[in-house]
Amino acid sequence: MADFLYGINPVGAALAGAGRAPLELLVASEGQNPRQARLVEQARRRQLPVRFRERKELDRLAGHSHHQGVLLRIEPFRYAELGQLLDAWRRSGRPAFFLLLDGITDPHNFGAILRSAEVVGCQGVIIAKDRACPVTPVVEKTAAGALATLPLCQVTNLARTIEELKQENIWCYGLAGEEHAQELFSSDLSGNLALVVGSEGKGLRPNIRKHCDGLLAIPMRGQVGSLNASVAAGIALFEVLRQDRSGTEQPTG
Fold first, then answer.
1. Burial degree of 53 (CB within 10 A; 0-12, 13-18, 19+)
2. pLDDT by residue (tens digit) across 157-182?
3. Distance, C-alpha 123 to centroid of its chain
4. pLDDT of 3 higher than 90
5. Residues 103, 131: contact at Cβ < 8 Å?
6. What is the dihedral of CA 35, 37, 40, 46, to 10 degrees?
7. DSSP 8-class letter at 199
8. Domains of the chain, CATH where assigned
9. Confidence class of residue 208 from pLDDT cuts 50, 70 and 90?
């Protein structure tokens, strides 16, 4: 199935060279406006095919009617191989810092996690092929450009991947709100590290928990018993960054 971007601003950014390579621009044949006309001109300057289609066909391709009359067919997303992530880490001379996602299915959560992972300097995000959200236009929009620089790897067996990382002397810690988990802020997160974050509803699967070196819990004082998956991942990622003094990050203000 083809991948499409939709909406005036996302399509304009892609035509300007941000993200995946554009292949074809589809424009509603009725009710055209100046903003759509500028995208048509932009596409033709890049020598891209421009097709005019009925709005109901655009609705069908996008899966909804909120596309502002423009769809851009783009090249398929290219996942990195696990070996590529490990090779890049070894060449970097820095401690390993990876993020594994076990069953994140909401595209907004997925995109937000990717954005946080890129900001803290994570060297790659690893997801399973099954029971996981794919890279969609919603994910890319929410990630705010993170996937342009953050490698994303898709694996068949997440538990086996954890074991491969452990063989590289990378400690793998899962986020879990349990009595027997270590408190996140009092744990030593220096050195080679991979964080494992579970799904929005059930958290880490039992088999994935079993393969982790340990479990980490975010302390909470309120009455609500859990955090949104993207919020929990963000807190843990920034705690790793806080403990890391080998980088060159600059404070923002």
1. middle
2. 999 999 999 999 999 999 987 667 89
3. 12
4. no
5. yes
6. -80
7. B
8. 3-74 (3.30.1330.30), 82-243 (3.40.1280.10)
9. very high
